[in-house]
Amino acid sequence: MSRYDDMSEQARFYLNNNDEIELAEMVASSDARIGQLKNELAALHEGEEEPPAWRHPAASTPAQWLWHWNRATPAERLERAALIIDAGQRAGICFQMAHESTIQRLRAEVGGARRLRDLHSCDHAVCSACLLPWPCPTIEMLDGRETPDA
Ligand SMILES: [Zn+2]
Q: 137: CA distance to ligand 1 center in Å?
């Protein structure tokens, strides 16, 4: 079998329809294009880091996350992009609504209510703080049944 027989149909077409100079120019042009594509591919992979095999993608560093991203299918990238966009929108709403400071304030209020409930604990059917029959008006108020002033 000759080298010609091993050639692809496309290579035979180029060989049969071009002279040596034209072929040399085609090879040089292809080499330049391959070099350009290799540079573009390297740029796409720049900054990524292969994660350890045991690590879940969600626990990745940004460089490892990029490694996963560059190996995901288009459908997986679209799904992840949708999740990122959704998370960003929800984070924006949380920021606008001041959810962090609201949570801190509510935690402080819950802590105060717990301390008040502990203070008014039951000791033999009598409140330890106000010495009224259990449940005392403070516990009734904390449980939402009535206020101490009612
Ligand atoms: Zn009490």
A: 6
How far is residue 45 from each of residues 23, 36, 41, measured CA to CA in Å? Answer: 33, 15, 6
Ligand 1 centre to CA of 106 (Å) is 23
Q: What's the 113 CA to ligand 1 centre distance in angstroms?
A: 13
Alpha-carbon span 137 to 149, nearest angstrom: 9
Query: Once rounded to an integer, what is the mean pLDDT over residues 24-50?
Result: 96
pTM higher than the cut 0.90: no
Gap between the Cα atoms of 150 and 146, Å rounded: 7
Residue-wise pLDDT tens digits, 84-142? 999 999 999 999 999 999 999 999 999 999 999 999 998 789 999 999 999 999 999 99
Q: Which residues, including other chains, have CB under 8 Å from residue 2's CB and lie 6 or more apart?
A: none
> What spacing in Å lies between the alpha carbon of 102 and ligand 1's midpoint?
29
| Single-letter residue type at 80 | R
**Structure tokens of 27?**
């090879």
The H or E element containing residue 1 is none
- What residues are paired with 126 via a beta bridge? 123, 133
Distance 111 CA to ligand 1 centre (A): 17
